[in-house]
Amino acid sequence: MKTIRIAAIAVLVLATAAFFLAGRNGGEEAQEFRLAAVVRGDLSSTVSATGTMKAVTTVQVGTQVSGQVNEIYADFNDRVKKGQLLARIDPTLAQQAVEDAQAGVARAMAGLRQAQGDFERNKPLVDRKVITAEEFAGYQYRLSAAQADVRSANIGLERARRNLGYTQIYAPIDGVVVERNVDVGQT
Length: 187
Prior knowledge:
The chain is mainly α. It has helices at residues 2-30, 92-127, 133-165, and strands at residues 69-72, 79-80, 85-89, 168-170, 175-176.
């Protein structure tokens, strides 16, 4: 029995010694600190989250003329400014339409000069009663029609020039490209 008491006392003494030694080491580590100088600086806070972002304003950008896409200058997630060139459509057909409309204006101007000359030559003749008023009315009609042809040809030229301008697609607002549904070479 005495050996059991001595063994129990020895175990108790060893446990107490281990407790104090572990407590002293743990206490020293807990009391460690470091010194640093006070420095003024900016603080930043970052929030990480998942979710879906939706644009306040979404603008569908398209074109008013058809043609093959030659170049694309903006892609998905690119920031664009209002008026920035986004894409270019092949201008060949639109350029030919402008040249055709210019020829139409020249043709209409030639017709107007012809009708104006006929009118001016025949005006004194109707005053002297060499030609009838009915014949002269035909010259007046041709002059009016030639003037209308010139206005129509100029409108056609303006339309062709505008369509040529539509072959360049510009950003209507500042923003970020969220989708691109066309590639170079597509119509």
